[in-house]
Structure formats: structure tokens, C-alpha cells
Amino acid sequence: MTSSRPGPLRLRTKLLAVNLSLVLGALASTGNVDTGRSLLARELQSGTFSVFSALHDPLEGLVRVFAEVYPVDVCKSISSCTVAITGAAEETLTVPAIAEVPFINLTAKPELRECFLKCKLPHQGLRLEHVTIESSDGQALATWAVEEVDKLPQGKPKGVGMCVGPIFSSTPTTLDWLQYYAELGVSGIHMYAVVADFVLKPSNYMHEPGSLRALQLEHHRLVTWRAFHPSKWSAHYYGQWLIFNDCVFRTRNVYEYIMFHDRDEFIHFVGYAPKKVHLLSMFARLFGERDVPSITYWGALIHTHCHVEAVGRVGSRRARIGEEVEVQTYSGYDVWEEDLRAPNFTGCTWKTCHPKSVIRPLGVEVMNIHHYHLAAEGFRKEYKMVGPEAVLIKHVRCLLKPVSSVWESDTSKPLCSDEEVLRPNPQYGGMPVCPASTVQEVRARHSVAP
Prior knowledge:
Blueprint: E1 21-22, H1 33-43, E2 48-57, E3 62-70, H2 73-76, E4 78-85, E5 92-96, E6 98-100, E7 113-120, E8 128-135, E9 140-145, E10 147-148, E11 159-164, H3 174-184, E12 186-194, H4 197-200, E13 215-216, E14 223-228, H5 240-250, E15 255-260, E16 265-269, H6 279-287, E17 294-297, E18 299-311, E19 325-331, E20 356-359, E21 364-367, E22 372-375, E23 384-385, E24 391-398, H7 418-422, H8 436-445
Parallel strand pairs: 2-10, 11-12, 11-15, 12-14, 17-23, 18-24
Antiparallel strand pairs: 1-13, 2-3, 3-7, 4-5, 4-8, 6-7, 8-9, 15-20, 16-24, 17-20, 18-19, 21-22
Main location: membrane
Membrane topology: Single-pass membrane protein
Signal peptide: 1-28
């Protein structure tokens, strides 16, 4: 096993134009599951330890390494971390490592598995150059540059942040989405672009055909981008376990609360227009006690018409041939309008009603996708569910053709029927998938009170 195995490319950059796009190239197929398992065993005979990121919180004196391993015994064999201290001639410090594979039993596919390390340093305030991960027999598994976690500017209070990933399709509402959360008072949005063959591979995934288009990377004052280029073996739920845990620890000293939402999800506080919401105080009220690590709430689907339009490049005086870019637009629902619908999430499950969570970053050790996985010491080991009478997610989704993953191109087709307004399907919160104006018209026609 070598210590020079390349890890995923890290990218942190400010983008210069709204119309800049990252074109994702398809890679060769890895074959079926049985073939893939055989190839994985053959290519990685001695095992592998692939680092995603190594982060240091100098305020706590803690190093965390987020990596992928094969087989999982590689993670279990880790015993220590040796850190190189900046400014000290070849000075190193070796400390015990606590290693775990938190999501080991999720699927039997031939994929790398997450390995999370904690290395507690004896001193706070150290500046580190790199960390070497070592097994119990003294073998160096990997060496990786150490990044300091984000630092809160002096005098600035902690705010509300958002971790978003993966970005594998150019979903509609992106610019509205950014403006929406900016109006709510989000302090920063950390977006992770996942670039891999499985992103573009044709399938029946719900986001097609968006997943086959160039990824539009919008610049915004709140957005920080990072690109994750996983290997062909690290398709484990699009890398979200790596992404979210990296994001939580990286921003732990900057935000009081961290949200996890995709670019087609809008948080809605019942009884409040978006521009009347102060997010920090809202969450303070919903969390309540200081030892609550997380709150969770349900989401309801809202269908819209989606289509692609060609627009001129931003900043150009006129659109010339070849200067247009394709952007996805939507119609049939306005997230800024008052919403008259009252969802009822009775009977919801984590799949049908797609719950999302907000966490205190210092209160969570390991983050799952829709819930926290492990609370920090001193925090409650329970979920706090907030009812839909207080808050819910509006999950905006393109209207699809029946039994298909293809968008419905007929923008004159109704987004819902009278039946759906009067007797909405209990799945997805029983919310009729149509705009507020339609709800008013149908209810008035049938003399039904809101």
C-alpha cells in the first residue's frame, strides 16, 4: 500500500460570471455489480486509503480526516496520526487516532466506504502542514495536506449556513433559490459539485434530462464552490456522506446553525412571507434548549413546468451566434407568493416526505443525509421533529410525463386537477401540486373554505 495515491481534486474558487458552465465528460462504464466487485478486488489487492480532506480546528486542537477505504479493515487498522507542525524544522507530533466506518452496511455494491478519523492534539492553536495516517504496524497509509477550518471574522456573530451537495444537474430555480435564502438571512452557502461518470450515465433517475446537461455554476456573494472528483469506486450515494461531514466540520466555528437543502427545495415558515423571516431567530425558537443538536421537518412536492431557454451571455452587449447559453426555467409556481395550501403529513416516511434537518455544528459528530448520525458529547441523542404547522419544505420538481423520467413539455397542461385540490393524495403531505391561484379558483368554484 502506498502513501502517494492521488485523492479527489479539491477546488475552492470564486466564479467570475453567471453563465460559466462546467461541462462534465462521461467515463467508461464499470460494468455490472459482479464484474465491478471482481475488478475492485483485483485493482486494490493491498487495500486503499483515499483521503477526501484533512481538516484542523485550532480552537479545539482537533484534526479530522474524511476518507474512503477498501476493504473496511483498512480503516479499522489505523492507530495513529502524525502531524507536521508549521514553522518547526521537521517537528512532528504523533497522537492516537479514533477511526470508524459509520455507514458500513448501507449497500452491497462494490464501492469504497467512508472512513472518518479523529486525532486529538495535546495543544490548541497549533499550525499544521500535513498529516500522515499510520496503521498499527507502523505502515503509512496516506499523507495529506491539512487545511484549517473556516474562521469567524473578529466581531462578526455566528449566522446560519447551508451545505449543498451533490450538484449533479442544472435544476431550475437556481437563481431564485439563491435570492430566496439570501432574503431569509443565510450567511453562506457551501456547494459541492460532484463530477463523475455515474452522474451523466443515462438512467431512470428523476432529474433527467437535467442530469445530462452542462452544469451551470452561478456566482453569488454567498456561495463557495468545491468540486469533488470521485474515483469510479466511490459512488456511495453521490459522495454525500463525505461532502456533508466535510462541510459540517469545516464551518463549525462560523455558523450557529447549518441547513441541508438541495437547489430545488425552499424552506417555508407557515404564516410568514419569505422576506418577513429572520432565520437565526426562527431557529433559536424552534431549537429551544442549548443541548438540542438538530431539528427535522417534512417536505412536500410542488410540480412546475420546466423547459430550457437560450439566453445571451451576461455582460455582452448583444447575443452573437455561439454566445448563447442554455438555462432551465420554470413556470406554474412562485415561491414568493402566499401559499394557501395546508399539508397534512400523517403517514409520512423518510422516503415519501423527504425530511431535512438543521443542526448545531458543534452538537453533531457525524452527519447522515437527512438526519444527524451521531450527536456530540453533552447533546441529546434524539431527533426533534418540528410539525408542518410551523415549518415545511417546498420541494419544487419538474412535471414529468406518466411512467417516465422525461419532462412534460406542454406548458399549457394543468399542474393539478380539481380532484387533487379537494382530495389531495396523502403521499407527500397531501399537498395539491398546483399554484395558489388554482387552489383559490377550485375552492371558490366548489364553495370550499380555505
